[in-house]
Amino acid sequence: MSEQSLKPFVKWAGGKRQLLGEILERIPHTFENYIEPFLGGGAVLFALQPKRALINDINASLIHTYKTIASEPQEFIVKIKELDSRISEGGKEYYYLIRDLYNSKLMREEFDLELAAIFIFLNKHCFNGLYRVNAKGLFNVPYNNSKKDSIDEEVILEVSKYLKNITICLGDFEDACKSAKEGDFIFLDSPYAPLNPSSFESYTKEGFDMESHVRLSKLFDNLTQKGCYCMLTNHNTEFINDLYGNKGYKMDVVSVKRMINSDASKRTGEEIIICNY
Q: How far apart are CA 167 and CA 67, in angstroms?
C-alpha cells in the first residue's frame, strides 16, 4: 500500500500527523504485537502498518466507524456520497439537520451504516474537526462552512483492506492492554493533560480527568515491568513530568502547533515523548 492511500480518514483533536517524524524516529526496531489504546485518527497506526495490531478507543461512534469501513467499505462510500451531494445546496441548514439526525440516532443507540457515514460527514464539516458533546452526550460542534467531499474513496478502500486483519476494540485503555506481553509495542496517545485549570481538554462525555492520567502512568509502569516497549505522548506540563520523571524513562520535548485553539497566537506549544526503552 502506498503512503498516499493509507492515511487517516478522520480529523481528530490531538492527532499525531504533524508529530509523526519524531514518533517514527523512536519506534522500537523490532516488536511483536502493536497495541494502541487511544486510537483517534490513527496516524501512527497507518504510518506503521503493523501486521499484528489491536486498536482501541472509548468513543463508540469512532470505533463503530472503523468497524464499518473494515466490513462495508463500498456501502459506506455510497452513503457518504448521498450526504455530500446535498451540502452544496443546503449548506448550514443541511449540516444542522444532519447533526440532529446523528444525535437522535445516538439517543436510540442506532449504530448502523448511516451513523458511521454521518459521523465522518460531521467530522469533515464541523469546526476544526472537533468532536465535542454536551452533558447529555450530544454532538454540538458548529458548521465550518465547508462544502468539500467528506472522503477520498481510495483511502477508504485501502484502509478497509488493512483493517480487516486488525483487532478493533471499544473500551477503557487498561482493558485494551490486558493481553500485552513482553516484546509488544504500546503507543499511548491519551487525551491531553490540561495546560492550566481553565483548559478544555475533554472531547467526549467520558472525559479524561487527572485521576485517569495517574491511572495511565501506573499502567505505563506495569507494562514496563512486563517487558513491553511503551511510548507515550502528551503536553509537556509539570504534572506529566511529575508522573513519569525520575523513573529512568527517556523524555524528549518537541515543539508543536496547536490547531484547535481559537486564538492563533496560542497555537504553538511543547509536547513530550516518553519511552521506556
A: 10
